[in-house]
Structures are given as C-alpha cells and as structure tokens.
Design brief:
Length: 368
Amino acid sequence: MPNLVLYRKYRPQKFSEVIGQEYTIRALTNAISSNTVSHAYLFSGPRGTGKTTVARLLAKAVNCQNRKEGEYEPCNHCESCKEIENGNAIDLIEIDAASNRGINEVRELKDSIGFLPVKSKYKVFIIDEAHQLTKEASNALLKTLEEPPSHAIFVLATTEPQKMISTIISRCQRFNFRRLGVPEIVSKLQRILEKEKIKFEKEALLLIARQAEGSVRDAESILEKVISFVGTDREIKKDGIERVLGMVDSQVILRFLKYIQKKDAKEAVGFLEEVIDKGVDPEQFLEELINYLREFLLLKIDPDFQDSFVLSFTSDELSEFKALITDFSKTELENSLERFIEAKSKMIYSSLPQLPIELAVVKICIGS
Ligand SMILES: Nc1ncnc2c1ncn2[C@@H]1O[C@H](COP(=O)(O)OP(=O)(O)OP(=O)(O)O)[C@@H](O)[C@H]1O
Ligand SMILES: [Mg+2]
Ligand SMILES: [Zn+2]
C-alpha cells in the first residue's frame, strides 16, 4: 500500500488548485498581487472546506522569495515555501485555540508580536478553532488586533463564527467558506485517482461525494477507506462500496417505496425482512429512507429542485425517482415521512429494531 494520506498529499499547493470558494480566492489573490493584504482575516465555514489550506497559501505567497510584483501564486520551490510546506517555517505560527498550549500561546502573543520576523517579510499567525479561545485569550488577542504591527498577518479560522466575540470579528476582514457541491468534489476525487492510477466508476465517486456532505477532507478520507478496502489494483465500483460506506443501495429503497406507494404492507414488510437478513442495518435503512422521502417531497413541490443529494444520482436513477414521485400524492409523501420519523424516535426503545418500521408500514398502508 503506497503512502496515501490523501487529504495531506493532495492539499492544494496553489490558489488555482483550490476548488470552489471563488470569491475568497479572487479577493485574496488580488490583495496579494497588489500588495494590499490585510492584517487580520477571519475564515469561517464548515469543516474540510479549505480554511487552513488557504491560510497557509496566503502565508506562502506573502513570504515567497521568488514571487514577483503583480503575481500571487507561491513558487513552492524557495526556502520559505519549502519550510511552510514541511511545517517548520519559523515565521508561520499555527495556534490551535482548542488546546491548552494554544491558550498560553495566545497569551504570550502580546509580548512576542513586537519582534520582527526572523527570516521573512511577514510573521503569519494562523489561529485555528478561534471560537474556542478563552475569554482571557480573546481579550489578549483583541489588544493585538487593535494595533497589529505592519509585519504581522493574522488568520483566524473557525467552524462556529457565531461563538466569537463581535469585537474580534469586526477587526477582521471576513470570508465565508462554503460546502462544496457534489460535482466539485467528484472532480477532485477523479483527479486524485488519475494521479494514483486507480480505476473507478464515476457513479462510485458520486456516492462518496454524497456521503461527504460538502467537505472535501471527508470525501478524501472516505476515498482512502474505500481504496484500502478495494485495493489499489482493482476498480472502485459503485456496488462494492455501498457496503464499505454502510450505504443502502438506491434500488433497495426504491423497491421498498414502490410497495409503500401501492399500499402493499405484506410485500413491504416481507422485503424489509429480506433486506435486513442480508445484513443491512435497520437504523441505517430507516435513516436513508427518511432522506429519500424528504428529497422526494422537495422534488414533488419543485421538480427542478437540486441539491447535493439530487446531483449525486445519475440521470437514469433520477428519472426512475421522478416516475415514482408522480405516483405519490403530496399528502402521501408527507404522511409517510411523518410515520417514518416517528418510527425513528421509537427505535431506540424497541427491543426489535425493525418493529417500529413495520408498524409505520402498517399504519401507512392500512391506516390506523
Ligand atoms: N476548497 C478545497 N479545494 C481543494 N481541496 C480542499 C478544499 N478544501 C479542503 N480540501 C482538502 O481537504 C483537506 C483539509 O482542508 P483544510 O484543512 O483546509 O480544511 P479546513 O476548512 O481548515 O477544515 P477544519 O475546519 O476541519 O480545520 C485539504 O488538505 C485538501 O486536501
Ligand atoms: Mg483547519
Ligand atoms: Zn516561494
């Protein structure tokens, strides 16, 4: 097995390799090439969407020894770029605000901030999990942000900006990172697999991207899990990975919902039993079922509705869904959804995990 910590190996080394976050990238690269970089930035957004990556790129670019006037990409070859890449750059200080050490480091910032960078033009401070700073540390940081020395750049990164004090937020230039869409994630996974020379079915990547819920890092970690399961010399196939990911095949859900639509309780319950016998976890099944019903309802209201769930299916699968949705009335979809949500809350108390699902089936099909 080759050395494959994918999310580290494929961390973008240039701004042009970052997917999505177009507005942030444009604003930052403009600031770099025109020498108007701010002294404090706040990067907020969900996990695994590029906050730390972009913060490091910014540090690389401002300190790159080969970067010329008017350019913004780091060269990735000079001593400074190399040191940042290897994690031993003395003028890039990364602080994890969630750790005890981080709290001390922020406290000491006030004293050390006055010192000039050792080797580079700028001292860059990346403060991760910035919402976790203690009150004391926040105040210390605030003092520093009030009058940052011209050689310092702060990048605060957080997944929970609502937990940060407004006085800090207002001193930073803020960028919101967004979840990535399925096609964006698929394109990156595809590139990785091509580089690693591993064969794949495109549908398999759609599944991985759906599971990742907008986080590129999660997608890369899932891909890694799949690769270690399948092996690097075999093709990554949709069929094989549903099991690895603990996902339920869309055909299974679809067939079950067809019985529900026909109000055929006997077939539905029988099929459920069959599926569980084959090793599908009832909880997972119900979870996915609710997911599908929710999307079906949204598609019923608006046939053009698109979200990452919808985008993660092939057009054949989607037309199959749409045919079934037409057979359901809106009320039937709502009612089924409600019944299955009810079943979910009952599942934890049930000695037989599939019993609440069966009850819901009976209620939906026969009425209560
Ligand atoms: N926008 C993106 N474009 C390309 N790759 C990305 C992007 N976002 C994340 N990645 C991939 O995910 C990995 C982790 O990203 P990063 O550390 O930047 O996430 P983060 O937003 O800081 O997450 P966290 O909130 O968990 O710290 C990167 O090494 C890279 O492989
Ligand atoms: Mg991060
Ligand atoms: Zn460089």
